[in-house]
Structure formats: C-alpha cells, structure tokens
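User: Hi! I'm working on a homework problem where we have to compare a predicted structure to a textbook description. Could you give me the structure for the chain below?
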Amino acid sequence: MELIPLKPPTGEGILRIDDSDDFVVMENVGKAPIKDLFPESGVYIENHGVLLVCTDGMAQFEYEGQTIQLRKNDMFIYIMMRSVITNFMSSQNFNCRQIWFTASEAWNIDMHGAKNLADHLMFLRQHPIVRLSDCDASIFDGYFQLLCRRMRDRTPMLYIDIVRSLFGTMLLEVLDIVRRGMIVEADLNEQSENTPSVYRKKLADRFMQLLEQSGGRIRKVDYFASQLNITPKYLSMLMKETMNRRPSDIIRLFTLKAIEYRLRFTDMTIQEVANDLKFPNASFFGTYFKEHTGMTPMEYRTKFHKGR
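Assistant: Happy to help. Predicted structure tokens:
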C-alpha cells in the first residue's frame, strides 16, 4: 500500500504560531479522527519533528524496525529523517498531546546554553521512547498547559520568543530524563562492560563524537572508519544496527546542519562558507546544498537569515 505523507492537522484544539505549520501544538487527539492521523497504510513525516505524549489508552506501531508501544505517560519523539510509521493500532480511548516543529523552527528554539535543538538531534533520535514517571508527567502537564495558554494569548510583545523558550525548557527536561535513564542503565550494565553489544554501542557513540568534532568539514565514511580502526563495511553495519541509518546519511545531516547555521547566523559569503566547510568550489557547494534541501544557498539565506 502507498505511504501517505503526514502533515500537522487543523481544527479545534490545534494551536499555531502565526497560523503557519512551523510550530503546531495539538492538545487532544481525541478531537480528531485517529485514522486520519495514522492511516493503516503507513505514513512518513518529511519536514517535521514530533513530540507525542500519551495521556490515555494505548497505541502500537512499527518504527525504525522495532515495535513501539505507548501507554499513559509514555513520550514518543520523532526526529526529522523521513522515517516511516506503519501498522498503527490503538485502543478506542487512546489520546495524546502532540507538538510539531519544522527543522527551520528548531534553529529558533532556545535551549538555554545549548546552541539549538539541532545539536541534540541525533541524541534524541537514539532514544525515541521516554517513560515518564508520575512526577515527570505532572511536570510536563504543567509545561503543556502553560504553553497552550501562552499560544492562545498573543498580546505580549515577545509572544513568539516566550513560546519558543517554553518549548526549549520542555526539551531540556526530556534530555534530563533520558540521561538519568542512561546513568541507571550504565550502572546495571557495569558488570557486562566487555560484551559485544556494549562495544558496538561505544563505537557508535564515538562515531557521533567524531562527527560533532569535524563540524561538517569531513564527509568521507572511510575517514571515520579508519579513526575507529574498523572497516567502512563494519561501520555501515554498526550504524544500521544502532540507528537504522547509513553513516553517509548521518554525515550528510551534520553537514547540512553546519551549512544552515552559517547561512542563517553569520554574514559569511557563499564562497567563504564553501571554503570553511572544505567543499572543492562554490559551484559544487551550491549543487550539494540544493540537491538535499531544494534551495540554493542564497535562496535559503534570503528566507531564513537572521540579519534580514
């Protein structure tokens, strides 16, 4: 069956910043037909990340080669990499809250000391399910209610900045919960430090660290494999196993993040950006960027540059 592209819904209880699809909050999925949101044929979300919290009932679906089960107080995080959701099933009383955000909006989210949400993209992607304790769920409920209240009242001069700051704080809470869980898991696995699965996880983490350190300037899988003392074939197998993505796909994501940051937040010329990120020339750089974003570097800068 043909996959259907899923987009932010409209209707009662659905809030937007300036009536665009860049940042959308859905208070109550029960107010919309669930089959319209997740048809049985399967869906993909191409241009958005989605944070979903189950508030009642249960749901189950296939995602990234694994079966995801959501019950009350479970959070699911979908990060923008064209992943597919299939075989969606839910109880009749299933309900959830959702927050949708585009990649461009992610650049604007205030992470209070972190550069932006994009810096945590791959980390969150590796932890799509977050189990909220009753205390955590209560905290998120308070954030969500405040977020919705602020989005309804657009009178403050800094309305949009306040909304983004609230969401950034919510994401910091998510990161804190995930990292707390990782510490507990590490304690439990302390006695099995040399098992193959732990070794592969460490290699995958080291690959991500090397990518961050490269700043988008190195785009060869062979280079990263050599730094890890493994073959490119093994690195591909490793990343497919741990993240269900090819190393080249992840490298491209980091490269595009580095390009977009320079185009949005600096006054570097197109040639300077190409040189800084070690592209052979500006023409090749422009072709690369347009192939993966649908826009030329200048078109992207004109649309998103903070100094415009």
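For your comparison, note the following. The chain has a mean pLDDT of 82. The first strand starts at residue 4 and ends at 5. Good luck with the assignment!
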